[in-house]
Amino acid sequence: MAFRTATFGLRRMMSTSSVRSADMAFTFAAPNAVHYNAVSVKQVDVPSFSGAFGILPAHVPSLAVLKPGVVTVYEDDGSTKKFFVSSGSVTINDDSSVQILAEEAHKVEDIDLAAARQVLAEAQSAVGSAKDDVERAEAQIAVEVGEALVKAAE
After folding, report:
1. Which one of 2, 84, 87, 98 has the fewest beta carbons within 10 angstroms of its own beta carbon?
2. 90-118 pLDDT, tens digit each
3. DSSP letter assigned to residue 14
4. Alpha-carbon dihedral of residues 132, 134, 139, 141, nearest 10 degrees?
5. 66 - beta bridge partners?
6. First to last CA, the chain
């Protein structure tokens, strides 16, 4: 009897919940710029610590932490834009809206490969000269960001 009651309640909830949108409202911001503000897009690919994944309209609601890498935005007109993010979070809502809040975000085409390699070299040097575990951990994070930055620029 309890199973029937639970099943009936679940069916009723599903039948009365709102229809999920075929559009995806995308907001993408960082301290340096708001790159998208509730703009309709086809798809967004993100790098996360649980693995890279693509987001389409009606994606299951989720939260994820971004790792250093490239966010790819597939716009409704067919164009593609790529952004390097150092870290941040992505929120996928039940209404097909998606928000990315990045610590840093820059267009991939604006990244200077030589400067990215310099950032990586300095971070690797900092790992070797770290005086304690905290400095070593901070330097290792900088290495991860530097490696992702160089990969994005290549």
Report:
1. 2
2. 999 999 899 999 999 999 999 999 999 99
3. H
4. 150
5. 48, 88
6. 62
